[in-house]
Amino acid sequence: MTTKLIIDTDPGVDDAFAIALAALSDDVDLLGVTTVFGNVGVETTTRNARRLLALCKRGDVPVAQGAARPLVHEHPHRARYAHGADGLSGRSAALPEAERPVEAGGAVWLLSRLLEQSDEPVTIAPIGPLTNIASLLSVRPDLHHKIARVVIMGGALLHGNTTAAAEFNIWSDPEAAHRVLTGGEVPCVLVPMDLTYRCAVDLEWLDALTASGPVGAALTALTPDYLAHYRKALGWDGMVIHDAVAVAEVIRPGILRTVAVPVAVETSFGPSRGATVVDQRRPELRADTDGATTTTASTTVHTAVDTDLDALRAFLLERLTMR
What we know:
- This protein has helices at residues 13-24, 42-55, 80-83, 107-117, 131-139, 168-172, 174-182, 193-198, 203-210, 214-220, 224-234, 242-251, 283-288, 309-320, and strands at 3-9, 28-35, 63-65, 122-126, 147-153, 188-191, 201-202, 238-239, 256-265, 276-278, 300-307.
- The chain is α/β, with parallel strands linked by helices.
- The protein has one domain: Ribonucleoside hydrolase-like (Inosine-uridine Nucleoside N-ribohydrolase, Chain A, Alpha-Beta Complex).
- The chain has a 9-stranded mixed beta sheet, sandwiched between helices. Strands 7-8 form a two-stranded antiparallel sheet.
- Strand 4 (122-126), helix 5 and strand 5 form a beta-alpha-beta unit.
- The longest helix is centred in the first third of the chain and has 14 residues, at 42-55.
C-alpha cells in the first residue's frame, strides 16, 4: 500500500535523513515538502530541503516556504549548536543545487492545494515547529477530513533537550503545538524524544550507510557537527535521528508502539514553557479526578513509547540504501 505524504520540516541533519527516507521509499507518494523556521532560519531550511530532494533525484516534489517565526512570540534562538550555522554541519553547499523553483503560494497554500487534489486522505509529518500545521488547521477546517493523521516528531515525557522541561520543536512554538495537539480535529501521533533517543545509531550504522552509495555518503557527510553535539548528549559516539523515527512510523504504521493518552502543552512563561504534559495515569484514575485537569478525552494523542530498536534501525538503513 502506498502512503500519500507531505513533510513539514526545518532541515536540520535529522530532517535530512527523514526527507531521504521518504524520498527513496517506493511505497511513499511524497506529494510535497513545506518548510518552517527552527533549526535555522526559514530561508535556509527551504534551501536545504530543495537540495536534499535534488540529492535524492526527486525534483518532481514541490517545496513551499512557510512560517519564518512562531504564531505569537519571537523565537529565542536556533539550534546551530547541534546542526551548524547552515543546518547541515556547514556542508549544505556540497549538495546539488535544486532546479525546481520554490512554489509561489507559501506553505499553507501548498498544503491546502495538495489536500484538495488528493483522492484519498494524506498523512502530514511535521518534523519541525508546528506553526504551519496550526495555521492550516485554523484557516482550512473544510480540509480536516482529507488528513489521515498527523505524525509529529516532538515533545518529551520525562525531560527536554532545549530546556529541562521542553523538547526543541514544541518549545519553538508552544502555542502552535497546543493548537495542533489539543484541538482534537485530526488524528495525531506524537513521537517524543524519549523514544527517539533510544533509537540512536552508532558509527557502525553510519559506516554502513556511507558505504552504500552516493546518497548514503552525502547524508553522512552532513553529520560532523551533529555527531559532536550528540557525543556530549549521549556520552558515546553516535547520534539521534529523531525525525527519521517519526517518518518510519508514517511508512510502516505500527513500527512504533503507541498509547492513547491526553496531552497538553505548557504555554506559560515559566521554566516549563513548551513542555508536553502527557497524562499517563490509568483511565480510571483520570475519570475520578475529572475536572482537576484541562486535558479531556477529546485531546487524546497516540504517543509512541516503544519499538523493536534493532528492527527499527535495520528498517531505516534498508530504506536509506535502496538506491
